[in-house]
Design a protein that fits this description.
- With 343 residues, the protein is of the alpha+beta class.
- 27% of the residues lie in helices and 25% in strands.
- The protein contains nine helices and 16 strands.
- The strands form three sheets. The chain has a seven-stranded mixed beta sheet with strand order 2-3-4-1-5-6-7, with helices on both faces. Strands 8-14-11-16-9 form a five-stranded antiparallel beta sheet, with no helix packed on it.
- Helix 6 packs across helix 7.
- It is globular and about 55 Å long.
């Protein structure tokens, strides 16, 4: 089963699907790209990724994860996890997460292939840079750090007959993510929301994962109990609380934040620098507006604003909304990290 036209001829490293490469631009060193695939698309996708690599390609599986990628030489990894049992994936989360971080700190680029149904269950997914869901005829961009393309749907011209059902799936996924985001912000468990709505915790779990069809009445009841407009839930979480606004190697005109000039990339307010020791956590000061900007001077950092986490590195500019009292920056590396904060 084919996914569309192949990559445009270029020395730059892409995803191997011309329509997607045009949207994302070249991949940059250190990026981890997760593909949620259906069985019929796997073989064609692997071929496309390899043809668009533009660099030596290494293949692996759960027993052959990237361990110590070179910081100087660019290679492209393709790690196929589609045949791994869900229970084994869960047990291997820490090991996979370690490999993801190793890639992010190197010159490698890694494509991770997951069964599409496992995208909701991969605990380590927070630390990757791009998340794509692929089916015959469509690629859905769920996440792409440093780029203004989240929730884009790429029509590749193949399998167009599945478009209506896939768009329905996207809407169900948006609704589920919106429910989860609002619930976590209220500090409620799935059981607590279920009690307030009159359904089981299992039903709430399926709603959040886009697996349970909701009647309009039930969806409106959920929105009412969460104190959120139904239209807002249907759109999904909306703007992420944590946004990678700039990343070296990604063209500034692709940034999710529109700027009038390059000078606007750096906040105008005074910068405060902080050295974060390995394993240490910084709770940055935040103004009453709740807006915070981080400039990463060095190191490998986890930026957290519940329920969201993001992996960042030297050169990244990160914007955080509604950060008052709930933002944290943790140094995951082995060397001290430098963070500049502004608000």
């Amino acid at each position: 089963m084919e996914l569309g036209s192949g990559p445009a001829r270029s020395e730059q490293i892409g995803c191997g699907i011309a329509e997607l490469d045009h949207l994302l631009g070249p991949l940059v060193r250190g990026e981890n790209v997760v593909w949620g695939v259906t069985p019929g698309c796997r073989d064609d996708l692997v071929g496309r990724v390899m043809s668009g690599a533009g660099a030596p390609v290494l293949s692996g599986g759960l027993d052959e994860l990237p361990a110590a990628p070179s910081a100087e030489t660019t290679v492209v990894w393709v790690v196929d996890l589609t045949q791994v049992e869900p229970s084994e994936l869960l047990r291997s989360s820490a090991r996979i997460g370690k490999a993801v971080r190793a890639v992010f700190g190197s010159a490698a680029i890694c494509h991770w292939l997951l069964d599409r149904d496992q995208l909701d269950n991969a605990e380590w997914l927070w630390s990757v840079q791009c998340v794509l869901a692929v089916d015959a005829g469509e690629v859905i961009v769920h996440r792409a750090d440093g780029r203004r393309v989240a929730d884009s749907v790429i029509q590749t011209g193949r399998g167009a007959g599945n478009g209506a059902s896939r768009r329905a799936s996207i809407r169900a996924g948006n609704l589920g993510r919106g429910i989860r985001t609002a619930r976590v912000e209220l500090g409620w468990s799935q059981a607590e929301l279920g009690r307030r709505v009159g359904v089981s915790a299992s039903a709430i779990s399926q709603m959040e994962r886009g697996r349970l069809g909701l009647s309009l009445e039930t969806a409106i009841e959920v929105a009412d109990r969460l104190g959120v407009d139904f239209d807002e839930l249907l759109r999904g979480p909306g703007t992420d609380h944590i946004v990678v606004e700039e990343r070296p190697g990604i063209a500034s005109d692709r940034s999710p934040v529109r700027r009038e000039s390059s000078a606007d990339a750096v906040p105008r307010s005074p910068l405060r620098s902080t050295l974060v020791v390995p394993g240490g956590t910084l709770i940055p000061p935040v103004s009453a507006s709740g807006r915070l900007t981080l400039l990463v001077g060095g190191g490998l950092l986890c930026v957290e604003r519940a329920p969201q986490r993001t992996l960042v590195r030297a050169g990244d500019i990160v914007g955080i909304d509604r950060a008052l009292g709930c933002a944290a920056v943790t140094n995951l590396g082995t060397e001290p990290a430098v963070v500049f904060t502004a608000w």
